Amino acid sequence: MISLDQNGDPREPHAHIDITNELFSSLSYISDNKVIKAEMFNLLEGTRALEMLNPNLDTGLITLSDEEIAFDSGRPQSIDSVIAVQNRLLHLLPSWLNNSSLPLTVLSCRYVQTLLENYAFFRDGSLSQRCSLVDRRLQGSQWQHHDTVISTDSLEYQLVHKVLKSFIIGLAKFVGITLDIAMNVLYEEEDITTRTAGLDFLGEISTVAVLDELNHTIEWILASDIESGADVLISQLKLVLRLNQLNSVFSLSVPLFEESQKGITPSFDFLSDGTELVDKLSSIEYNQSCPGGAFSRFIQLDRENKTIPVEVYEIAPVEAWKSIRSLFQSVQGFVVNSHKICNYNQLINFLRYDISTSAVDMNIIARGIFQLYVIRDDRTILGCPNITVSNYSIDNIENVVGKNTDLLYLDDSSLSSVKPELKHQLKDRLQQMLQDLESCVYHNVTVHASNVCRQQQLMSKSLVLWDTLQVSWESFEVECFQLCKIGNELPSGDLGMAVSSYVYFTKLQAMIDLALNGVNLELYKDFEIYLIYWYVAYLIQLIVEHLTGRIDLIIEGKIAYIEKTHPKKIKKFKAGPKKQQLKELQLYYQNKILPQLVQTRDYNRIFLTNSLVAMNNFLDAICVFLMIISNLGICDFRDGPKSSLTSMEDMFHFRMKPWSSIGVPSLPTYAQYINSFKALGLDEAPDKFQSALSLIKVIKNKLHLSKSLYQSLLKDIVNDDRINSQFVQDDNSKVVYWYESIVKCIDSYSEEVEKFVEILESNKNDISQINSHNYKLKIIKSHHRYFPRVTVEKTFT
Amino acid sequence: MASASNPSLTPDQFIGSNLRVAIKDGRVVTGILTVIDPFGNLLLSNVIEESEDIISPPGIHKRDIGLVSVPRETIVTVSVDTNTHRRLFSKK
């Protein structure tokens, strides 16, 4: 190997002066083995440095075979070879999305690298000219093939320079689209890795031009006399074409809540066609292998690379096809279902059950597409021109506390008795308050399609946002009522505080979701599981009280206003235009607002409250079960693990930190947590065996009650029009699946309780034998993400 | 110019200089000296690696490899361009 550092090297125009001696002799000034570093440099960053001449870290040491180095992407290939290359690229695309990077997957293909390098090099010309597969660096090199004369008219030449080239253009453009989506809404290295080895994935080329290119090539194949394999080539090209069509969903405008559009589902043939193409291509047996050297680590050695050497990564073909199929199916699922949404509850439930719960299984690109699909650049929801984030926020409030919330519709007539100066102040302040509320609602919408770990982080952030919002709305509502008598009243005549009540409700929901989502993420240690369920049970108790108390009264107050107060008001007026105006308003209230208020009240009472009560019964059962386990010493929830270096009190405060800054409801104290164990009286019970058995009866009752409530809810979801009209009508309803999974968990718990009774029975003569030495607690994944199976097992020592 | 026995510059004065380091396998890495330890191991940032083009030798192939640590035993020579040299040694 030649040395590149010869003085006077003609390739190096700038003279360099050797300072080797000066640099290394300066080290004699270093005392105490100190490291000398740039002021702003953090030594921790140095841990990701690549070490020269270390085979594990230096990509410059990657060894390649002559075949890999000399691979000529411009050489004609047989139809089987082209099919094999395209097939492998279709496997490498989902491999990239499976925690890998482009240089290890798609860019390991020399054809892709050459095409993108040429695209960057040739700044002018047609798409076809810029995206050549001729490797310029091979021209005139020792590797150039001189053995055969290449005919540009041959089929083999056309298969590479027309078919394969179009396929790679399509694939590269789709990678580019994915990278754009990733930059906007996905998280680097959590969802996707966007390293591109410094290559531009056809950013300047429009999708339309790419689709044209693919369509022309398909037409060319159809017109050519290729005898076998043409069908596969066309399917591969069509699949890439369908992938590029995915971003057309961003231009779909969903006619939300429009009765006239109900039942009209636009055609999304390209999505179902994509799935069919995957099914077809995955069923083919590919016998031919790719040309030698077409896929290698060449790019890792050759291009910009700030990572270590890694082998080319490829997932199993079955997994690859499954991933692409899931992409089309996920997008089709949410696009079709979003067109069925008829009301706000359906929209909210669609986000909560259909999207949020399935985000973990959803294809990464589909998740990204969904985020851009649901909130568009112009801040409309699902592209519906009438529904922006602003009015979505207001409808969100009224979806919980009912229509006709006075404060949200402050206008000159409602402020007619207010002094002009105060009127302006109120209006300005309301505007600001609504903006703050809008950002919280927007924040909540972005949570749904994030990855599960980000969901947790975003929810944690949202607690603070909603808590702050509650404080400001409460004071605003009180002031408006005191100063101007504006605000909905409860039937008793007291102020309803409708918006604050909605904010409090949403905050409590977020607090519950945050705690339970942590169970799904396995954030909690075994000895913390009781703490979390105990806390959630407390929060659910509060939200049920709020829902059945204040929120119900607010809606009743609004109903009473329409049925009693407003008609009385009309009677007071003498006949005339004002009376007529009020009569028309009353008619509107009766026909439009009242049915909606009744609907909201019934939904809250029948569905929301019952689902929460059912969950609370289940949580109560779990907590009692865990308390017995703790009391018998199998897993100590009061003192924590024996090997712990810190106190349980510290661990309590550490675990509850995300909720600790919330003003209302305040975090229960550690003393309250410890006292919760005393409630059952198991500590002082003279006969622990009998006490445990009687508590088991309590557990069984709670489980039975919970199961009955859930089963009743499931019936309502299917049969009760007041409830099923609040969910998107879909054969694969996620909400049904959600509750059915909880019912299965209840059954699992019942089995565990029975098993535990057997353990009690077998040790009834000496209950002290049930201890952490002989038995252990095991928490394993179950049917529902919030409720893993808690089982007590005998230890084998 | 200073000799090994009589060094004129302290190591911190080299920090931030763009160094051109020839390493034993013939490659040259050019980057900003960010860290140096008492054993002469270097940490360079924004590194451009120059090597013989494996496709068309003896052409030179350059690429960006980011943050790189260069162990002392792999270093053949260290050099700087004339401007950097003037800036470093005119301070004496």
From TrEMBL, chain A:
First-listed, main subcellular location of the protein, grouped into a coarse class: cytoplasm
Domain NAA35-like TPR repeats: 342-788
InterPro entries, alphabetized: NAA35-like_N (IPR057983), Naa35_N (IPR007244), TPR_NAA35 (IPR057982)
Parts forming coiled coils: none
NAA35-like N-terminal domain: residues covered: 33-210
Cellular component terms (Gene Ontology): NatC complex
Cell location: Cytoplasm
Sorted UniProt keywords: Cytoplasm
Family: Belongs to the MAK10 family.
PANTHER family from the UniProt entry: GLUCOSE REPRESSIBLE PROTEIN MAK10 (PTHR21373), N-ALPHA-ACETYLTRANSFERASE 35, NATC AUXILIARY SUBUNIT (PTHR21373:SF0)
Listed name of the protein: Glucose-repressible protein
Organism: Scheffersomyces stipitis (strain ATCC 58785 / CBS 6054 / NBRC 10063 / NRRL Y-11545) (Yeast)
UniProtKB/TrEMBL annotation, chain B:
Matches recorded under SMART domains: Sm
GO MF terms held by the record: RNA binding
This protein's GO CC annotations: NatC complex
One Pfam family this sequence matches: LSM
InterPro entries hit by this protein: LSM_dom_sf, LSMD1_Sm, Sm, Sm_dom_euk/arc
Every Sm domain range: 6-84
Gene3D superfamilies (UniProt xref): 2.30.30.100
Record-given protein name: Sm domain-containing protein
